[in-house]
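note to self — DONT lose this again. spent like an hour looking for the file last time. sequence + predicted structure for the chain T wanted, 393 res
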Amino acid sequence: MTRLAAAQQQVRKDFLQQVQDGRLEKPAAEGSALPNLAYTCPDFFRLEQQTVFRDNWVFAGFVHRLPATGDMQPVEIAGQPVVLVRTGDDSIRAFHNVCRHRGARLVNECRNSGKFVCPNHSWSYSLDGRLLARPHFHGGEKHDVNRVECHRADLVEIRCVSWHDWIFVNIGGGADDFASCVEPISGQLEAYDFTTLRFTEALEFEIEANWKLAIENFIEPYHVFSCHPWLNSFVGMDERVAPTFDDKVLSCGYEFQTTDPARAGALPWFPDLPPEKQNRGDWFVLFPNFAFEIFPDQVDVFIAWPEAPDRCRETIALYFVGEGATDEKYATARQHVIQNWINLNHEDIGVIERMQSGRNSEGFDGGVLSPYWDPVLQQFARLMTESVSGETL
């Protein structure tokens, strides 16, 4: 056993011992959530990359960034180099981004090409991952293009699905069918015509905190009255309900009494929205790190990308309906919404980073939870524990 494997085995043991105190099984008022080491320990960070991010469906990229056949985008998922590509049949597929010969990374930047070509020895692969040729493989000018001999060196494919404008991969290959994973969300989206959405802008933020804190903060509305003055004035705490969960989907929502330029006030709406959706905002987390909000006039995607135990990058991708996404007459309205999201996120970042600092304190280890607002945090902790342990709680 390598030193790294031994360290990860020990941190898994330490983690499971800490969560065996009943914190996840007891009611929220008596239990708590994840222990500190899940947010601070480098070995745990590596462990969750190899379990949580390998064994679940994980967001990998946006469909709109691969519009043409041959478009390629390198990404990193679970510490693995992955390449997304739009193939000749107009589907998007994912492969391990590595040549089968000597392991060189095939694609270093977004580009368009009719095939993959390794920079090391010029082995080439089709867009669907088939090895095409190995120059000089049998000696000078003795090239190998024999498919019978070549097939063993085809690129290794990764499970990949596209859902609306979003691409998900499952590196480990053993996750449940994607449609079943998002079923708790899909039923709530039937009234919204996603074909009318247009991507508008992506905002990027660097956060000096663990990725899990960003996701936990996203799903719980308890902090709104304290951290978000405008949002609290839009929908007060007495109008908010507790988050709910269904397996790997965490969700919450509210009804608003009046519109605002930042929410359903100045931009075109989804067509033919039924009355019950005309004054609603809903938001969802698909475990582990993909989330989005939906309103009558917009969809806003949140992704927390893990970078280190105490650092993550957050992407907020904004979509508007029809001409609301591009028409000049809506430019001021769009900018108002965009600035609102920037302001809200900066209000969150300061608190998230302070929570990260607090995870180094012996005076905190999982939290004293609200029985109303915080059961969703226990569910997130259970999902983490199940992924790390490989066992269902």
